[in-house]
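Narrative progress, year one. The postdoctoral researcher (J.K.) led the effort to move from monomer predictions toward full complexes, under supervision of the PI. The following entry was the first complex the group processed end to end, covering 629 residues in total.
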Amino acid sequence: MSGDTGAAGELLVARDIGKRFGGVAALTDVSFSIRRGEIYGLIGPNGAGKTSLFNVLTGIYTKDSGTFVFDGSPLDDLKPNEVAERGIARTFQNIRLFANLSALENVMVGRHVRTKATVVGAIFRGPRTREEERAIRRRSIELLDYVGVKRRANDLAKHLAYGDQRRLEIARALATEPRLLALDEPAAGMNATETAGLRSLLESIRGDGTTILLIEHDMKLVMSVCDRVLVLDYGRKLAEGPAAEVQKNERVIAAYLGGDVSLNLKGA
Amino acid sequence: MHAFFDTRDRPALVWAGLTLVAAALIALPWVLAGIGTAWVRITNLAVLYCFLALGLNIVVGFAGLLDLGYIAFYGVGAYVYALLASPQFGIHLPFWVILPLGAFLACIFGMLLGAPTLKLRGDYLAIVTLGFGEIVRIFLNNLSTPFNLTNGPQGITLIDPFRLDGFSFAGTQHVFGQALTSPIKYYYFLVIVLLLVIVVNVRLQNSRIGRAWEAIREDEVAARAMGINTRNMKLLAYAMGASFGGIAGGMFSAMQGFISPESFVLVESIMVLSMVVLGGMGNVFGVVVGALMLSYIPEVLRYTVGPAQMAVFGRTLIDPEVFRMLLFGLALVLMMLFRPAGIVPSALRKRELEQVAADVG
């Protein structure tokens, strides 16, 4: 297997990633690696470059320097759709669902990249196309059930409750059969109960063999669910390691509070 | 009322309905011919507008790309037919060769328009497409020198009608003592093609391709992140939309026997866009209803405004032609005020969703 390079079985290796916007360095020499099957946290104060890193990884921005190696092969200068095809799916910090499509249709769009029907197939609707269409629908309903919004399958995405929209976005991403699922603040705006539900969802996704990269501000969630954590500050790597170690790191605490005040991040 | 239209478990009702519709469609031209042959011609033009509106609906309604130059593809199809079936070059190819050719060429033009506009949206896209439409019209107007391709503003005359194995769509035959006039013959051909086009549109919408278009319409960034090749899908939307326009153009040429650049002006593009918006963007049946309404209303007004004034005031107060367009404009405004999402209510959409509910269980 090309993927199982190195003893750790790294799924994604980032080396010296750099990205500038005019005079602002959004990312400077960021290196890290994500192991197969782990939940990898990405934290840092607002403006630290977390979402920029997501956008560079998923091809929405082109990076200025560095390389990503995904599953053993480089991920350079690919368009977002090509990145998705390679097996990285993402959600967005400010939810970006297809508002006027039903929840089910949103997930069905996610199947696009793993299905084949062409215009000709769609027009003539032969047995193969019909079978594929049935499979798309079946799988999408399964995924809605999996994330817990099946009962809202027929409602337009924009009419879903906030927490359900977050879950729907995860279902849509899962529909592309990712090997790496990148979630940008999935718990933002959720109450404690919803966050607890999200945690068990993340754990079951990981249990099904999908590696997760998680940007999150909810420290309680990060510390409880992440195997390892990368801390960014001003576009640079501040710390990387097991969650328990990172939360004791003085530089991390200082970055969050702007001074050497001690803080129990667990409770934040 | 809703339950009455719920035909899922009543196939007999579906067949009865279909038979009724088919009978109505077959009988319609004879009824209209009784009122006046002009109404058959008006109906034929209305069906052509349905093609155009359905084609534009793929671009605007499905993929969400505002296109103000759509009539250019109609023009391309019309001129392809005119040049290959008229004395202009002495070429007289059969229609079943030219129509696909016109569709293909319009398709190429669609991609020509699409390629440079891939990164544009909304207002900016509208301006570029508007320019494209004008460029095509100006070319048609001026390609008479140095080499006379289009015959300039005089247009092309004596265009061949459809002929099939000796049977001509022009002229009148008598069948069972009834006059089978040229417009009636074209009517049947157009209605059959229209039904095919509707089926194609509905199938496209409910497919992997249609969902990709709708995803682009809703959120292009998210669509790309979900693995949709937005460049190819947008080009495909332009190409599909344009090819419908091209086919319609070819049929227009054959029916009229004469075309000139004047038929492909900006107002026509706007008219077709209005049909799409008014009928209900993205809803195939809504778009057909919109096209039929906007085609018929001005014509109905043409025949009623004058007599109505005479009846009410005893004389003609306002020039009927002016008054007609005034009322037409008013009708547009009122329709959009009372049905901002289009004429066809979301009931159809709702029913689609209920169908899904049945599947989900």
